[in-house]
């Protein structure tokens, strides 16, 4: 069984969570989307994904969550060899400068999106970061050409950096 790549969305407000998932629905045919409303639930989902030998390509995470906050979750993911490659995005309206800087410095934050966001911006960021993840983590990126940055993936394939016999 080939490993699947997941998108994990962590948001405690149900209507915001639904909105994020709806906005990135075009990726669902190629990337499983999982949802959590707390950092602790996200940790359980992450463990299940990893236990089944799948990967988390992207996490879209709110900062203010019940219990552990989103920045701390992203930092923990960065410290784990299994989730360090995951592209990390903070989507929030309430993280202050200090928390945002901490996320950038300690969680290798790839993007910060302020609420409310524009769907086009969220889709473009998702496409870019998933393309980065696929280039870095997948042997044959051909199957993702229709949904990701086809030009960048074609260049990777053309240069032979990711074509293997497997």
Task: Walk me through the structure.
The chain is an alpha/beta fold. The chain has a domain at 5-118: 3-Layer(aba) Sandwich (Rossmann fold). The chain has six helices and five strands; from the N terminus they run βαβαβαβαβαα. The protein has helices at 14-23, 39-51, 70-79, 97-107, 119-137, 150-158; strands at 5-10, 32-36, 55-61, 87-92, 111-114. It has a five-stranded parallel β-sheet with strand order 2-1-3-4-5, with helices on both faces. Strand 1, helix 1 (14-23) and strand 2 form a beta-alpha-beta unit. Helix 3 runs parallel beside helix 4. The protein is globular.
Quote the distance from N terminus to C terminus.
13 Å
Can you write the helix and strand succession as a string? Answer: EHEHEHEHEHH
Write down the CATH class of one domain: Alpha Beta
Radius of gyration: 15 Å
In short, what is this structure?
This protein has a domain of 114 residues: 3-Layer(aba) Sandwich (Rossmann fold), CATH 3.40.50.2300. Helix content is 43%, strand content 17%.
